[in-house]
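Incident log, support desk, overnight shift.

02:14 A customer reports that sequence design results differ from what the structure should imply. Their input is reproduced verbatim below. On-call engineer (initials T.W.) acknowledged and began investigating.
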């Protein structure tokens, strides 16, 4: 088996994943792009395991661990995204700026406090 074919495919998958992480604003699409990058790593691990003819199959064992970690990561990531969507009403990365629960009376970023809800300035 030629090593170049799966290595090129894994590089393309990884590049698509990096583009998805950098260009997307939706958190779910960013998580999908991270999973795509992890799958590119898994493809490389299995390809090198087959190419090196490892008797212990260490690449395949590491792939199983990576798949397990990816499943846990996507589960926790989606739980966090759903919680943020319930509290903030958006899954847009650029609009999620603070980690704490937003106060109702606090002004938005860049908005003066006097213009908030038509109150006079103190």
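02:41 Re-run completed on a clean worker. Output:
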């Amino acid at each position: 088996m030629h090593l170049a074919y799966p290595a090129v495919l894994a590089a393309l998958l990884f590049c698509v994943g990096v583009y998805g992480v950098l260009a997307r604003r939706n958190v779910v699409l960013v998580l999908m792009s991270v999973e795509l990058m992890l799958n590119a790593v898994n493809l490389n691990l299995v390809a090198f395991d087959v190419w090196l003819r490892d008797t212990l199959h260490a690449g395949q064992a590491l792939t199983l661990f990576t798949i397990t970690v990816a499943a846990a990561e996507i589960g926790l990531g989606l739980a966090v995204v759903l919680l943020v969507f319930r509290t903030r009403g958006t899954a847009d990365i650029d609009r999620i700026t603070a980690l704490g629960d937003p106060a109702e009376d606090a002004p938005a970023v860049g908005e003066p406090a006097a213009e908030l809800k038509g109150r006079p300035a103190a």
